[in-house]
Amino acid sequence: MTLEEFKKNHPDAYCSGDTEDADCHVYEGVSFAGVKATSDNSCRDFKTGTNHPIPDYCHAQGMRAEFADGKMVSLSYGVAKGMLPTVIEALKKQYGKPDNEKGFSVSWTCGATDST
After folding, report:
1. Total structural domains within the chain
2. pTM for this structure?
3. pLDDT in tens, the chain (116 residues)
4. 112 found inside a domain
5. Element counts in the chain: helices (H) and strands (E)
6. 91 in a domain, yes or no?
7. Domain that holds residue 58
């Protein structure tokens, strides 16, 4: 996904500038694997881009996307404590058996489609 597409899909996103290398945050209306992302009310004030800088505690709230050369290189979501098993099970249903699984550290290789 490009930065331009991300901004079009998430008009309330706060991005650290309009350059090709950006750090973007969305604090409202975000879910991951059917689980609503957490978002502290004070972080929502940053969606307009009028308040700088974003406090450290807000980086783990809602959705965060990082871009390099205009292309997404990282995407993360903050989910409520205790919801991680629900998210992992939903991802297993969607993407099949993970390539690596150790506790709550789970990963799939791009293109893997094993659904057993």
Report:
1. 1
2. 0.66
3. 999 999 999 988 888 866 788 888 888 888 877 777 777 666 766 554 454 566 666 766 788 899 999 999 888 877 776 777 888 888 888 888 888 888 777 887 765 444 44
4. no
5. 2, 8
6. yes
7. 3-99
